[in-house]
Amino acid sequence: QVQLVESGGGLVQAGGSLRLSCVASGRAFSSYIMGWFRQAPGKEREFVAVISWRGTSTRYAESVKGRFTISRDNAKNTVFLEMNSLKPEDTAVYYCAATSNILATTSEVYDYWGQGTQVTVSS
């Protein structure tokens, strides 16, 4: 079992920045691929970013490429999502998730999920 707890969400103006954190407890964090997803009201959950075990490989959704950066600190069991140049359409609940599978961009592959943190970007 892996428990995930996100933090760092909040209200920010368009063009601003936020840094989300996700702390993991339980089984060896470094053995999991970690992803970030988001879900806006009335919309399906969508992929945002994913990072490999050692942090050497990453993937991003086209909508966030160049603005968001995913990273991890295995010594602290934490994965981060640095979000810059935020837009109102980035408003959503952001979830971190863990999988021992491939560098996946689909939510069905992920085994463990956090409770989410709200990000609201005002125009």
The mean pLDDT is 95
* Helix-and-strand structural type: mainly beta
Low-confidence stretches: none
Q: What percent of residues are in strands?
A: over 45%
**Dominant shape:** globular
Could you walk me through the main structural features you see in this protein, from its secondary elements to its overall organization?
By secondary structure, the protein is mainly β. Helix content is 0%, strand content 51%. It is built from no helices and eleven strands. Strand 5 and strand 6 form a beta hairpin. The model has no long low-confidence stretch (mean pLDDT 95).
List keywords for this structure.
mainly beta, single chain, about 120 residues
In short:
0% of the residues lie in helices and 51% in strands. The protein has strands at 2-7, 10-13, 18-26, 33-39, 46-51, 58-60, 68-73, 78-83, 92-99, 112-113, 117-122.
Topology:
Elements: E1 2-7, E2 10-13, E3 18-26, E4 33-39, E5 46-51, E6 58-60, E7 68-73, E8 78-83, E9 92-99, E10 112-113, E11 117-122
Parallel strand pairs: 2-11
Antiparallel strand pairs: 1-3, 3-8, 4-5, 4-9, 5-6, 7-8, 9-10, 9-11
